[in-house]
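Wed. Picked up where I left off yesterday with NACHT C-terminal Cysteine and Histidine-containing domain-containing protein. The coffee machine is broken again, so keeping this brief.
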Amino acid sequence: MEPVTLTAVVTAIAALVHLLQSNHVDDDTRWQVAKSLGEILQDNKHRIEVVKALSGYWRLDYHCYNVIWNCAQNLPYPDFYQAWHQHNIATRAKQSLKKILFTRRI
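Structure written out below (tokens, as returned):
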């Protein structure tokens, strides 16, 4: 059996996150996806990416929450905080930039 490449792991994580965010997956599949993510997330870099992806997801259910909780328990707090709030920071920065660029001066 050949060793699993980093590219394969990243691809698998992305596919599992995509499934977890899908509206067309039943509860049993979501449970299995969350369990699989918990098993393959061994790297803080990957945990950060998963937290970033799920932090902007509007439908955080029990399965998403468990994945995020697993990441939170295994990441240093500053890394988790920054990953979780990444979307909020980017959104605020974009809104501020729009105000600066598109505010009409009289």
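Quick read: The first helix runs from residue 6 to 21.
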